[in-house]
Amino acid sequence: MMFNVRHYERLGSTNDEARRLAAEGAEHGTVVHADEQTAGRGRLARTWFSPAGNLYLSLVLRLETPPARRQELSFLASLAVADTVDAMLPKHVRAMLKWPNDVLIAGAKIAGILIEQADDATIAGIGLNILHTPASAGYKTTSIVASGGLASVDGARDILLDRFGKRLAVWQANGFGPVRDAWMERAHPIGASLRVMVSGETVEGAFGGLDTDGALLLDVPGGRQRVVAGDVGVV
Questions:
Q1: Which of 88, 108, 123, 148 has the fewest C-beta atoms under 10 angstroms from its C-beta?
Q2: In sequence order, what DSSP letters do the residues of 130-197 get, joined into one string?
Q3: Looking at the chain, which runs of residues are DSSP E strands?
Q4: 113-141 pLDDT, tens per residue?
Q5: Rounded distance, CA 207 to CA 228, Å?
Q6: 48 has pLDDT over 70
């Protein structure tokens, strides 16, 4: 897959700029890369810490797939980020995944992913901590450097785009199955105790894997529950 990278010193949000470009007809594979964001955001409208020294980019994707399948890109993107992190860290360190798209090193979050729809285009926003971590995120965070790795921002970008392109090609050719299987290899073991915040309520149960559409399967006393949106913690 060919990427057309547009580099900016500072933007409010790379997703917002990618959305603007998509509305103007930007082609599939357009990448918005900013050294710094002044209004970066993550899932659930959370602010994303965005100083210079980390990687912030958004991809414009024009896909010939049903809109209902676009949520699968969240898992694809998290795998591409995990692949990238592995490439920059010592060989004994491996990135793990937490539903729906958290990338973790030793339980600490190292990246953020935000998938948004912009008319007929999909915007995949990715933030990866290279040098810096937020001091007051409310959860454990880390960076490539803090985890014993070494990388430049541009080097991390190039690795990420390569890995994303490869994962996307597999998804387009073979569907969600291979993505789901690869994601499960990096996730909690089946049966792990999870605590999930769903619509303001906490539900505890055992990890039952991913459904065929990416929904979280949680085994609770009353049976198996499907979770399509929520925050997951390990009990």
A1: 148
A2: SS---SS-SS-B--TTTTT----HHHHHHHHHHHHHHHHHHHHHH-HHHHHHHHHHTSPPTT-EEEEE
A3: 4-11, 30-37, 55-61, 96-98, 102-105, 108-109, 111-118, 121-128, 193-198, 201-210, 216-220, 223-227, 231-234
A4: 999 998 889 999 999 999 988 876 678 89
A5: 14
A6: no
- Domains of the chain, each with CATH number or no CATH: 4-185 (3.30.930.10), 193-234 (2.30.30.100)
Determine the Cα–Cα distance for residues 87 and 156; give it in Å rounded to an integer.
9
What are the tens digits of pLDDT across the range 174-188?
999 999 999 999 998
Distances (CA, A) of 108 to 137, 138, 139: 11, 11, 8
Q: Which residues are 230's β-sheet partners?
A: none
Q: What are phi and psi of 41, to 5 degrees?
A: -140, 155
The answer on pLDDT for 14 being more than 90 is yes
Tell me which residue has tokens 């810096």: 132
Annotate 133-151 with b (16+ C-beta within 10 A) or e (fewer). Answer: bbeeeeeebbbbbbbebeb
Q: Contact, 53 vs 28, CB < 8 A? A: no
Residue of 120, 31, 16 lying closest to 70 (CA atoms): 120
Planar angle of CA 21, 63, 74, nearest 5 degrees:
90
Task: Give the pairing of strands 30-37 and 55-61.
Answer: antiparallel
